[in-house]
Amino acid sequence: MKFYSYTDLSKDKVEAICLRQLEDDSSILERVKSIVTRVKNEGDKALFDYASQFDKVIMNKLYIDKEEIESIASTIPADAKSAIDTAYQNIRTFHASQANKEGRVETMEGVECWRETRAIEKVGLYVPGGSAVLPSTFLMLGIPALIAGCKEIVVCSPPQQDGKTNCYVAYCAVKLGIERIYLIGGAQAVAAMAYGTESVPKVYKIFGPGNRYVTQAKQLVQSAAGTAIDMPAGPSEVLVLADETANPSYVASDLLAQAEHGADSQAILVATSRKIIDKILERLEIQIKELPRREVTALAIANSYAVLVENLEQGMEFSNVYAPEHLILATEKFEQLIPLITNAGSVFLGNLTPESAGDYASGTNHTLPTSGFAKAYSGVSLDSFVKKITFQHISRKGLENIGSTVEILAAAEGLDAHKNAISIRLKG
Amino acid sequence: MKFYSYTDLSKDKVEAICLRQLEDDSSILERVKSIVTRVKNEGDKALFDYASQFDKVIMNKLYIDKEEIESIASTIPADAKSAIDTAYQNIRTFHASQANKEGRVETMEGVECWRETRAIEKVGLYVPGGSAVLPSTFLMLGIPALIAGCKEIVVCSPPQQDGKTNCYVAYCAVKLGIERIYLIGGAQAVAAMAYGTESVPKVYKIFGPGNRYVTQAKQLVQSAAGTAIDMPAGPSEVLVLADETANPSYVASDLLAQAEHGADSQAILVATSRKIIDKILERLEIQIKELPRREVTALAIANSYAVLVENLEQGMEFSNVYAPEHLILATEKFEQLIPLITNAGSVFLGNLTPESAGDYASGTNHTLPTSGFAKAYSGVSLDSFVKKITFQHISRKGLENIGSTVEILAAAEGLDAHKNAISIRLKG
């Protein structure tokens, strides 16, 4: 782990260390382009070919249906079933609370304006499942889609070695009432949902994290096919802000949890004294030895850094420039820091709130803006699955009240037909 | 205007006529790429050159400040000032009503989750002003940015022939408390805000309509620079659904108001009888003769079409496939149609509610999804200028309640360090 002292850093240097290392992925882009183009042109045939090429599975059909899903789901261990049930309930409770009905507003007498919410009718969920199987992502995307009322929920997840999906993903599907899972992974899954194939329906918006191919494919179809996407995505990251009230072992465990995602994950430690940093790194060295994924975890830790700050406020200043996907406030003084947070995806308060709680089960969504995108993007929520449509109704009285204003502004912009749409109505 | 009878159309044909005619703009893309690259590399120098090349103005500096803005604003005619004041008030009232504070949710005892809203700190507003000067767009973007509390609001608008801006735009700036206007137009303005130059600050999100160059530049910087944008954009459009209770003259005036935007605008008429269509087209022929922009308006009308439907419900079915930016329900029976609307940007109810009211002054935003994007996107609102950050706090009791669930799910996904972040805390 590198080390910086914040007060020694110039503004430019701060910006530089906050820049995520985005590899030059022009070679990936070319490969993704060719995959997307082939799926667009050849449909299912391309998908069968890619399953054999990338997933090393010969598929007979591209999906499994209700009966087969239920049969696979029934093999889930009892404790995992119960854990998914609990996570499901919490995620559902929190996302349901995000629905809000807005009232009508009379901006002038007789001029009434309001918004109504409508579900996006066709959405595509990508549930990763290559190197790690991620049923939690299925819940994080499926539950808000269900609450929103999306009519058609298309789910793609890479086939496992047996050409099926695993019991966790299958059980999530049962919980969500999803009756078909497309066993398609990577850029080809994104292309299939963006353009539609003989088997896979075309959707209006695609959600879900994935590797570089998936991410690149999402950005490609966003501009080429006009498909909306949840957000751009990069490797996962955490920033932990710690002071002397932090528990060094807990902080070490949080940094390691982030680092085990992959060598390109970032685990940033910001602390108010060198002593705290040293203690945490000491615990980290001990804990990492016990981890099955210690090699990749060590790579990520080596790519990460610690920043010494003079106080918590300065730490927040740095954090807001970094704009972390996950922000852990490992301090008893978290309440006073909340108003200072401007850029972050999801925030974990105090010593007993690890990121992994939010990754799986507390109720918040784990699909969050990485790579500094938290400066402009929110994480996935119920909002991500709906549109808000504005409505207005104007009465005769309202028309009289607003008419001349519209006429004058339309004339100022040289749009006479706009003006006339008012004038002709004012004449009665 | 072409004519179709809905019941004679196959599903494929319906999809085909709903497809917006997107010209092949690969030549535009190449030119935009070169403009964006030059601004990125050369900064202000490129902006001065483009002002002289595209706007035909030799600029000494790229912006005007408070004093000059106030001086220009003071020349505004009294009636226009008062019209802007009224529009400002209505837009402010409606957008302020979109703020909502969410409560904290206890998903399990001791596990508390909530969201807080934060303004996007740096936003860029593009106020078009080439062929038509659009102060209304300035209000539509500036007011929600102000309510949201965006710290830095960068405004770009093309210079007028005198190298300044006009009195309407200047007066809007005064109303909004914006103390600098960058006199930069087109793709170069978008590039300047995405990358920053010596004069122009870099922003996190860019808003605003514009011509093809502006639109293409927004999409380019979205993928290349990671700058968020409000939405993709295409030519403006309206769909009017009319029955025998519609006023043919009013409907004609609404179609013409849309058509005068440009030859590529679409004005779609859907009506429940041939007689209604004929009456409306009759009035349209009369009204168009009086319009100063009648030539371009006639081109747009020629590119548009009418659809005969059997009843209003069938009309809504078609409208939802078309997903219009603006939907006018020219019928007294609008209330019963509201629940049937799934895809639209903004809806105008009844015979006395012309689109132009919403374009300028009723309070709703006029920056809306075109080209069918209403299937997945909302128009600009207060939401567009904020992010929602999730927070969570877990107590000892909460940790005991949620702990095993997280441990089991983390283990199922093979993420032992995630599991350990819980286990180590459970040990106390």
Structure explained in plain terms:
Two copies of one chain form a homodimer. Chain A has helices at residues 11-18, 26-42, 44-55, 66-73, 78-96, 135-148, 167-176, 186-195, 212-224, 248-259, 274-288, 294-302, 312-322, 334-337, 355-360, 396-412, 416-426, and strands at 2-5, 63-65, 105-108, 111-119, 122-126, 152-156, 180-182, 205-207, 228-229, 237-242, 266-271, 305-308, 326-330, 346-349, 386-394. In chain A, helix 4 (66-73) packs across helix 7, helix 10 (248-259) packs across helix 11 (274-288) and helix 16 (396-412) runs antiparallel to helix 17 (416-426). Chain A is an alpha/beta fold and 428 residues long. The first copy, chain A, is globular and about 85 Å long. The first copy, chain A, contains 17 helices and 15 strands. Chains A and B meet through helix 5, strand 3, strand 4, helix 9 and helix 10 of A and helix 5, strand 3, strand 4, helix 9 and helix 10 of B. Strand 14 (346-349) of chain A pairs parallel with strand 15 of chain B. Chains A, B: Substrate binds at residues 236, 258, 261, 326, 359, 413, 418. Chains A, B: Belongs to the histidinol dehydrogenase family.
Which short descriptors sum up this protein?
46% helix; 3 domains; NAD (chains A, B); homodimer; Histidinol_DH_CS (chains A, B); alpha/beta; Rossmann fold; zinc (chains A, B); 428 residues; histidine biosynthesis (chains A, B); Ald_DH/histidinol_DH (chains A, B)
